[in-house]
From TrEMBL, chain B:
Keywords: DNA-binding. It holds the Pfam family DUF2063. This is DNA-binding domain-containing protein. It comes from Rhodoplanes tepidamans (Rhodoplanes cryptolactis). Coiled coil: none annotated.
């Protein structure tokens, strides 16, 4: 390079690894609580809820959209059912992000997946951010909107990660308030996704599956079941993924996520799985997925691949594998009928 | 729920784990909590790497990562819109002692920050040569010009465009005269962001137009800024670059 002769001494080594889940792609919200009459959550205004637009993703495979796959997606002779985007990357005023979305929406249903609302946060939702989300959903009306059972902001700092929360009566009431605020602001049903977690809270008193069931019951939201997250969390906490799925309110699930994970070791040398989204979906996760579809019937299924993103044919093949599971289930149900 | 101790410990490795954090294997799972610490810091460094690739190319990966880590800890994002994260990074570089030997580095970062803003800026249809051909030359000097929403000017006492171009793969490496000032125009008339080295005085000309001066008054301001200002070259830039989105008569000339 032209200028490295002037490079000064390098500061102390960072000692930082590559991020496990970079949800960016490079160039590179209202705190209303409509319908709440008490925090026990038993008196939500059902008239408001009835007006929410329901999630209408097709029961087909989809992929998380990366700009390098635009041409492949637009040229696909047997296009997948939908693409999913991370909402925050499309909150600029204009430019290529919106041009790409406009081109994709001619061929694909759109799922908008938020990563910045901080649904699990202590504070009320940021009305400015909720407003940006509303603007995006108005500009590119999605078939579905989803967010995470996690927090990412505290005291005005955005941490850019999906951070865990204890499951208690108080956090349940708060999450319901936030989900209700989102659905009221957007006029849409939202899907809430189960997280990957690496630690537990000694203060938790409610099982995650019960927590999600109760949020769905109180707010009328749908659920997004991330099967990789189920496997990752079960491994990380020494519990059974099958037991988790048996306890999960599958009737409320309107979309499934599949993604790859990485493996490391914890303080005691036990396996610690990281929701890294940088590899193919692991075989045990495919098995859990097949068992889930056998119980639920076909559901919109997304392949998430956010790091070390492969070329389009590799990602396309991974999505085709999910599609095959969905088609086999449709065939099996026909045979049974 | 997302308690203050958890949040505070994310960006400060010196802080203890929040007391309620546990695991089925270890009562105080430092390595597990470190996954969150690493995700936060590393993903924000990654966001800066994505926005400032030429800056990273100049200083090298290790220097950049260490600098970005210091910036992340001192100035974590205040918004989930990471496309805006790093607007303060150039000013941070300017006062970052290890970068004191590269006084032009902050301006290269300013140019890169402007490129991302242009990428996400509002769309507008630029005027082309045929739009200008319809203008009566006698009235040209009295006209006001609306500049494209993506347009940004970066002025530098250093050869910022040359250094950026050599470190972004858009120009071959060559000798650099670090005493040559350069002004950059960053623009996205359609889908591609362009970077143009402006001729002398043109930056002042465009700044005056943006402040709603008439073309003739902007030319006077440009000559005052730089006696080498060439009005013909400036008009050619205005007409040929897609920089203008509307031309309007002076208010007193309106019917």
């Amino acid at each position: 390079m032209a200028t490295n002769q002037q490079r000064p001494l390098v500061p102390a080594q960072a000692g930082i690894q590559r991020p496990h889940d970079v949800r960016l792609w490079s160039p590179a919200f209202a705190g209303m609580s409509g319908g709440w009459t008490d925090l026990s959550g038993n008196n939500i205004n059902h008239e408001i809820r009835m007006t929410f637009a329901r999630s209408t993703l097709p029961a087909d495979a989809g992929v998380g959209f990366k700009p390098q796959h635009l041409d492949g997606l637009l040229a696909d002779a047997a296009p997948l059912g939908f693409v999913e985007i991370h909402a925050e990357n499309y909150m600029g005023a204009g430019g290529p992000p919106h041009a790409m979305l406009a081109a994709l929406r001619d061929r694909y249903a759109l799922s908008i997946h938020g990563v910045g609302l901080s649904i699990g946060g202590l504070r009320p939702l940021d009305p400015e951010h909720l407003g940006r989300l509303k603007t995006l959903c108005d500009r590119h009306p999605p078939a579905s909107f989803s967010e995470h059972l996690a927090w990412s902001s505290h005291d005005e700092v955005f941490y850019n990660d999906l951070l865990p929360l204890p499951y208690t009566a108080a956090t349940l009431a708060r999450v319901c308030e936030h989900v209700d605020a989102v659905q009221t602001a957007l006029g849409r049903e939202m899907l809430l996704e189960n997280p990957s977690t690496y630690v537990l809270f000694a203060t938790s008193t409610i099982a995650e599956t019960d927590f999600l069931r109760e949020v769905a019951r109180r707010t009328g939201c749908g659920l997004l079941l991330d099967v990789n997250n189920v496997f990752v969390s079960a491994t990380n906490h020494g519990t059974s993924a099958e037991d988790y799925l048996n306890a999960f309110p599958l009737a409320q699930v309107k979309e499934i996520h599949l993604g790859g994970h990485a493996e490391t070791r914890d303080d005691a040398g036990a396996a610690l799985l990281i929701d890294a989204h940088g590899t193919p979906v692991a075989d045990p996760v495919w098995t859990l997925y097949e068992k889930t579809i056998a119980r639920t019937g076909p559901l919109p299924t997304l392949i998430e691949w956010d790091n070390d993103v492969p070329d389009w044919p590799v990602l396309r093949a991974e999505a085709e594998r999910a599609r095959a599971v969905l088609r086999a289930d449709v065939a099996a149900r026909k045979d049974a009928a | 729920m997302s308690g203050a101790p958890f949040a505070a410990a994310l960006l400060d490795p010196g802080r203890p784990l929040p007391v309620e954090i546990t695991s089925h294997t270890a009562r105080h799972p430092e390595r597990r909590f470190a996954v969150y610490r690493n995700n936060v810091t590393a993903s924000l460094i990654e966001a800066l790497r994505a926005r400032f690739p030429a800056t990273e190319q100049i200083v090298g990966e290790d220097f950049f990562a260490a600098t970005a880590r210091d910036f992340v800890r001192a100035h974590p994002p205040r918004s989930p819109l990471l496309m805006r994260y790093g607007d303060g990074f150039p000013a941070f570089l300017e006062h970052f002692p290890p970068a004191a030997g590269m006084p032009w580095l902050a301006d290269v970062a300013r140019l890169e920050a402007a490129r991302t803003r242009a990428y996400h800026a509002a769309d507008a249809v630029p005027l082309g040569p045929s739009d200008f051909a319809a203008i009566d030359p006698a009235t040209l000097g009295t006209l006001r010009v609306a500049l494209h929403p993506s347009a940004a000017i970066v002025r530098s006492p250093f050869p910022v465009v040359t250094i950026w171009a050599m470190n972004s793969g858009t120009a071959a490496l060559g000798p650099v005269d670090f005493d040559t000032p350069e002004d950059a125009l960053v623009l996205r008339p359609h889908l591609d962001v362009t970077v143009t080295r402006l001729p002398p005085g043109a930056a002042a000309f465009l700044a005056a137009l943006r402040a709603d001066a008439a073309i003739a008054d902007a030319a006077v301001a440009a000559l005052a800024d730089d006696a080498g200002f060439d009005p013909t070259a400036a008009l050619a830039l205005l007409i040929g670059s897609g920089l203008a989105t509307a031309v309007t008569p002076a208010p007193e000339a309106s019917p």
